[in-house]
Amino acid sequence: MLAVENLSAGYGGARVLHGIGFGVGAGEVVTLLGRNGMGKTTTVRAIMGLLKPLAGRIAFDGADVTGQAPHRIARRGIGLVPEGRQVFPTLTVEENLLATAANRAGGAPRWTLPAVLALFPRLAERRRNLGARLSGGEQQMVAIARALMTNPRLLILDEATEGLAPIIRTEIWSVLARLRAEGQAILLIDKNLGATMKLADRHVVIEKGQVVWTGTSAELAAAPQVRDTYLHV
Fold first, then answer.
1. Residue 120 contacts residue 140 (beta carbons within 8 Å)
2. Is 189 helix (H, G, I), strand (E, B) or coil?
3. What is the DSSP string of 49-105?
4. Torsion over CA of 71, 72, 73 and 76, rounded to 10 degrees?
């Protein structure tokens, strides 16, 4: 579904990514792992057209989307939950969700307003609250629900549970497990290695803008040297 080939990108004169390559198949959950500053968010920004690649190719469902405008890439069926949530502060929960509603997967839409409110009952209780009056965890739920409202074929989450209370993290991991069980393709960035290893099919480890390891959760569990060298602070 998603193919990233020999991708290089950066900011100004500083190159951050140096020939990254990986893929996400239909219904697959893949993580990008690595310490802070290694290029994970830069990779997501390049995929979404928010940063123009210096070299390489990005394909989605067989179509070359390298360097296309963000709205064109999103319309192909990629939903982004950005780092920092970026909820509209002056819109209510319901307005935040309806603002992005679309049916990019084709057929009958899986994710409607009633469906995402059932997925996140806490948001149903706060549907009239302004975004600025939500907790960080509630804002993250809005960000995930908002991306689902586009009915994406691929869901990308950048720092899915960073800085959230344990009870909220547990709820979000439960939602992601349900999405995986329903066949939602997901590209995930998160520092919770234990949770990601339970959820994901494969992991891509990035160090200084390069892929240094890739494998399954079982293979990562059997590779303490990879965890110690590239993932532990």
1. no
2. strand
3. TSS--SEEEEEETTEE-TT--HHHHHHTTEEEE-TT----TTSBHHHHHHTT---TT
4. 120
**Coil, helix or strand at residue 186:** strand
**Higher per-residue confidence, 145 vs 233:** 145
Radius of gyration of the chain (CA): 17
Chain centroid to Cα 139, Å, comes to 15
Over the stretch 17-62, which tens digit does the pLDDT of each residue have?
A: 999 999 999 999 999 999 999 999 999 999 999 999 999 999 999 9
* pTM exceeds cut of 0.85: yes
Per-residue pLDDT at 100 exceeds 90: no
Query: What sign results for the dihedral spanned by CA atoms 188, 193, 197, 201?
Result: positive
Q: pLDDT tens across 124-180, in order?
A: 999 999 999 999 999 999 999 999 999 999 999 999 998 899 999 999 999 999 999
Burial class (CB in 10 A: 0-12, 13-18, 19+), 35: middle
Q: List C-alpha distances in Å: 19 to 50, 69, 212.
A: 18, 21, 11
Concatenating the DSSP letter of every residue in 7-24 gives EEEEETTEEEEEEEEEEE
Residue 100 sits at φ, ψ, to 5 deg, of: -110, 5
Tell me what pLDDT residue 233 has: 54
Burial 64-78 (b: 16+ CB within 10 A, else e): ebbebeeeebbeebb
